[in-house]
């Protein structure tokens, strides 16, 4: 019996400067040998998608690593951040900015003939300004010589950017009505979908394709939509890479990229942490619920969650939460032991010192500390992690 071939669709959402994240996703997919047959995009996802389809991923990465806001938008170069905010407010009132710098970049980078020859089929969405209807565009339906104009229309992030006119019709950013064009990829023949969500401004439609779908997204804030800066781009590229590797089971963790635990450090940490939490809960019943609240509020899994990776992720969660709380860099890979050591080297004053009654059984201050922990449960978990690590050899 002949097995039907899987047709892979990669769907790149819009999100302005956050689009650098998608370069990291693409790099990981290449290492994983996950090659799409179809790419669809909205806004910046359109620009990245075309570059990937043309085989210009290296050029795309070099572009993002050098891109400043003045390379994308026609803004004065001498404005400080506060003046820039006022400038954008004035721009919005006056109908939006031109994107001539970006248009010039596209002229140098986009080879329409190469895109049309690519074995990867390419599509994108735009929004009709007058009706706010989404328009789906397949590359084969774009008139010859007009691809760049259509791509700029898909990326016209109104009201910050001016609408683009094509054949007498004004268009704005495709993300306004369909920021994750899964349906377009399905209509082009995809049988499996991988979406890349960069938390852009726009409307994400419910996935009604019925197709197997996975979504890559970041635990971390990828930055403002118009913050084009090389340093942030480099960080987001790394996050996109690690998040994709996590989705495919190559690294662990929730927020940090966690490499294999070679010396069972995580198991020993989990034992120390649970013993300490049990002792605290004996002194002040209900503190286990405070710990649970901290995990939930920060987006980390609970202990013993019912999925295959739960035991590891559940044990890692407090350590990752504490590392995030103390701004341990998120764009590097760690073993559990290295993450713990980096966390312990990230403070001068031990977070555990704020909770002597809860953690050590001191007589005075139990009610005050309990109230503090309830108000800021993340601080309580950070203190628990610090004390649990201090009581075990690294």
Question: Can you offer a commentary on this structure?
Answer:
The chain has 394 residues and is an alpha/beta fold. It has 17 helices and ten strands. The chain has helices spanning 20-31, 44-53, 57-66, 81-93, 100-109, 112-117, 147-154, 175-178, 182-187, 230-247, 265-283, 287-298, 310-325, 336-344, 356-360, 366-375, 377-390; strands at 8-12, 38-42, 121-128, 134-138, 164-166, 169-172, 192-196, 213-216, 257-258, 333-334. The strands form two sheets. Strands 1, 2, 3, 4, 5, 6, 7 and 8 form an eight-stranded mixed beta sheet that branches. Strands 9-10 form a two-stranded parallel ribbon. A hairpin with a 5-residue loop joins β3 (121-128) and β4. α1 (20-31) runs antiparallel to α3, α1 (20-31) runs parallel beside α10 and α13 packs parallel to α14. The N and C termini lie far apart (55 Å). Mean pLDDT is 89; it is low at 305-311.
Main beta sheet strand tally, sense and closure? 8 strands, mixed
N- to C-terminal separation?
55 Å
Q: Provide the helix percentage.
A: 40-55%
SSE string, helices as H and strands as E? EHEHHHHHEEHEEHHEEHEHHHEHHHH
Query: Structural class from helices and strands?
Result: alpha/beta
The helix count comes to 17
Radius of gyration: 24 Å
Which percent band covers the strand fraction? 5-15%
Short description:
The chain has 394 residues and is α/β, with parallel strands linked by helices.
Task: Give the arrangement of secondary structure elements.
Elements (H helix, E strand, L loop, with lengths): L7 E5 L7 H12 L6 E5 L1 H10 L3 H10 L14 H13 L6 H10 L2 H6 L3 E8 L5 E5 L8 H8 L9 E3 L2 E4 L2 H4 L3 H6 L4 E5 L16 E4 L13 H18 L9 E2 L6 H19 L3 H12 L11 H16 L7 E2 L1 H9 L11 H5 L5 H10 L1 H14 L4
Helix pairs in contact: 1-3, 1-10, 3-10, 11-17, 12-17, 13-14, 13-17, 16-17
